[in-house]
Write a structure and sequence with these properties.
There is one protein chain. This protein folds into two domains: 181 residues, Lipoprotein localisation LolA/LolB/LppX (outer membrane lipoprotein receptor (LolB), chain A, Clam); 104 residues, Phosphorylase Kinase, domain 1. The chain has four helices and 18 strands. A ten-stranded mixed β-sheet has the order 5-6-7-8-9-1-2-3-4-10, with helices on one face. The protein has a six-stranded antiparallel β-sheet with strand order 12-13-14-17-16-15, covered by helices on one side. A two-stranded antiparallel ribbon has the order 11-18. The chain is 10% helix and 41% strand. A hairpin with a 2-residue loop joins β1 and β2. By secondary structure, it is mainly β.
Length: 334
């Protein structure tokens, strides 16, 4: 996968290099639940363990990533030393690409991880209303399956609305690591499938195993994935509409007058990039998709200034279009 760590950090999947890498995991599951019933206590424990296991275990493995008829093969190496995570993700097919993670504390928990561990996100101190995962997803345990020669428990995550995708996970019963991830649309169309073909637990890992092989690689530092449970910087822009359950996780200002707003519901995430431009004539517009990840490009004017607008994330196109139509100056996340 291109372990671009998404905002949730506890659930990670391989996506395109335009987004940060991510990984996903879980731990031993209980007996299968009957159809149509949420086993909330079991699921709460599962998600809490899921958010922790991938950060704390040492492993290396190879997996395939399938989307839109294409198939990539990747290798991941992950190790924890003195409470810090180190990781290298390498594409074994297609153009040479790598992601290297350096020294992220295992204790680091951001907004998505906080929600996965059962936390309640309160929109403001003035209200008792909060955001929980089970408000927006149904969780089911669907028996067992063998993946990469290991026995895994199947977990189905079904959204309660059309603003997010469904997931099926195969979670190793012994290690708690994810062996398979399947993302589906509301019409049950398979958008992408990530599946391990080889997994080694607690293997010997040296410095060379974690070093980048090519000159061109994406380096992720602790600053790339802040531990804060909410955005730390003030936002210059606001979204007038958000799918229920999504909260503002991070605000970035890579350059003057540019802004990146990242939102998550604990499982899905998306980022909005706002950049000033000389005019709207050269602004690219349109929609591109790779698996469950989209990039929606547009432009707008505000206070007689032109801006380019890009939304990337794991949400349906109609949801992304509705979000971008409500961009406005002001405090984001309100």
């Amino acid at each position: 996968m291109l372990w671009c760590f998404k905002a949730s950090r506890g659930l990670s999947v391989l996506r395109s290099a335009g987004r940060q890498a991510f990984f996903l995991t879980g731990l031993t599951l209980a007996a299968p639940a009957s159809h149509g019933m949420d086993t909330l206590s079991t699921v709460d424990d599962l998600l809490r363990q899921l958010s922790q296991a991938v950060q704390e275990r040492n492993y290396r493995g190879r997996f395939t990533y399938e989307y839109g008829g294409a198939l990539d093969t990747l290798e991941v190496v992950h190790v924890v030393r003195d409470g810090l995570e180190y990781e290298r993700l390498q594409h074994l097919s297609g153009p040479s690409r790598e992601v290297v993670r350096k020294g992220r504390p295992t204790s680091c928990v951001n907004t998505g991880g906080f929600l996965l561990r059962g936390g309640v996100f309160a929109p403001s101190a003035a209200t008792d209303a909060g955001v929980r995962l089970n408000q927006h997803y149904h969780f089911y345990i669907r028996g067992e399956e063998r993946v990469a020669g290991r026995v895994a428990s199947l977990v189905q995550i079904a959204p309660k609305d059309d603003d997010r995708y469904g997931l099926t996970l195969a979670i190793d019963n012994i290690s708690g690591l994810p062996l398979m991830w399947l993302s589906t649309s509301a019409q049950q169309k398979v958008l992408e499938r990530l599946q391990f073909v080889e997994l080694q637990l607690e293997p010997p890992i040296n410095e060379q195993d974690l070093a980048p092989i090519t000159r061109q690689y994406l380096a992720l530092t602790p600053q790339s994935s802040p531990c804060a449970k909410s955005a730390q910087e003030p936002a210059r822009w606001s979204l007038g509409w958000l799918p229920s359950g999504f909260v503002l996780a991070q605000v970035e200002h890579p350059q003057d007058q540019q802004e990146i707003l990242t939102y998550t519901d604990g499982i899905a995430s998306f980022s909005v990039f706002i950049k000033p431009v000389a005019s709207l004539e050269g602004v690219r517009r349109g929609l591109a998709m790779r698996g469950a990840t989209l990039a929606l490009m547009s432009g707008f004017t505000a206070e007689n200034k032109a801006y380019s607008l890009v939304l990337t994330g794991e949400i349906p196109p109609q949801t992304a279009q509705q979000i971008l139509a409500t961009i406005e100056p002001g405090k984001a996340g309100s």
